[in-house]
Design brief:
The protein has ten helices and twelve strands. By secondary structure, the protein is α/β, with parallel strands linked by helices. Among the domains are: 88 residues, Winged helix-like DNA-binding domain superfamily/Winged helix DNA-binding domain (Arc Repressor Mutant, subunit A, Orthogonal Bundle), CATH 1.10.10; 98 residues, D-Maltodextrin-Binding Protein, domain 2 (3-Layer(aba) Sandwich), CATH 3.40.190. A five-stranded mixed beta sheet has the order 4-3-5-12-6, sandwiched between helices. A five-stranded mixed beta sheet has the order 9-8-10-7-11. It has a two-stranded antiparallel ribbon with strand order 1-2. β1 and β2 form a beta hairpin. α1 crosses α4, α2 crosses α3 and α5 crosses α10.
Length: 294
């Protein structure tokens, strides 16, 4: 067996499908499948149950998973230790960003890091904030830009933005007759919003639960622009964060939701025990974002 086979096996288990594992590792799906099959032949046991829609580890796979992760971590530590001695950072870092969120300072920070450390390969992918934070905790994601409702546990954290929720609707919508606009006014209409696991949705769900309200979620979408377009079409009122409102002011009027004081946070999460390469990456990205919000 070799480290690539272990890496692909771990990726398939963590992602649940060969397709997502292929996207994560940058290898074709048939290539990953062939390497995992070769690993199974060498070990003399099937490691994966491929019979369902989601690939799951067999009992033998469960037994192999943690040793495989340990071997990959040990190999990375060896490379890093040697790199530190010779003064050259090498290896690979995986960076995640919440789906539908395009934030230029993140890209600027990654570009600056790549110029300074070209021997480190960077992988960038999108996912839900919840899955990205779990990946940071588990060590499969090195740094992630995520939306949360407060600081996520078990990670280093730096907020990029912290904003209250607004509701948006076409100018002639009856919602605008209320003053101030409360959460009860919002939930009297179908709602278009972010999916579960995002900071905005977490704040909305917690506020509704605290007041005994059950919103009628008409549509979930990951991109703010899509949510605004759906609201403009009349499907429902949109719930977003403050800074997202000005870009759609030509077709939607907005109000702060007066009785929701909690804020949706957008920020960077990374390992609380970073290696030298991740320390430098976090420095570059934090510098690109400038001072944190007050």
């Amino acid at each position: 067996m070799d480290l690539r086979q272990l890496e692909y096996f771990v990726a398939v288990v963590e992602e649940g499908t060969f397709t997502r594992a292929a996207a994560r590792t940058g290898v074709s799906q048939p290539g990953i499948s062939a390497q995992v099959r070769q690993l199974e032949r060498e070990l003399g046991a099937e490691l994966l149950d491929r019979s369902g829609r989601t690939v799951r580890p067999t009992p033998a796979g469960d037994a192999a998973l943690e040793p495989a992760r340990g071997a990959l971590a040990a190999a990375s530590a060896v490379r890093q230790a040697v790199g530190d001695v010779v003064g050259v950072l090498r290896g690979r870092l995986t960076v995640g960003m919440v789906t539908g969120c395009t934030v230029q300072p993140l890209f600027a920070g990654l570009a600056g890091f790549h110029r300074a450390h070209p021997a480190i390969d960077l992988t960038l992918f999108e996912d839900t904030s919840e899955r990205l934070v779990d990946g940071v905790r588990q060590g499969t994601v090195d740094l992630a830009l995520v939306g949360t409702a407060g600081r996520p546990r078990g990670t280093a954290w730096r907020a990029v933005a912290s904003e209250r929720l607004v509701v948006l609707a076409p100018p002639d919508h009856p919602l605008h007759r209320a003053s101030p606009v409360t959460l009860e006014h919002v939930t009297a209409h179908p709602v278009v919003c972010m999916p579960r696991g995002t900071g905005i949705r977490t704040v909305l769900d917690r506020a509704c639960a605290a007041r005994g309200l059950e919103p009628d979620i008409a549509v979930e979408a990951s991109a703010a622009e899509a949510i605004a377009d759906l609201a403009a079409s009349g499907i429902g009122v949109a719930v977003l964060s403050e800074s997202m409102a000005p870009s759609v002011a030509d077709r939607l009027s907005s109000h702060l939701i007066a009785d929701v004081a909690d804020r949706a946070d957008l920020g960077l999460a990374w390992s609380s025990t970073p290696g030298p390469a991740l320390v430098r990456l976090a420095e570059h990205v934090n510098r690109a974002f400038g001072p944190p919000p007050e």
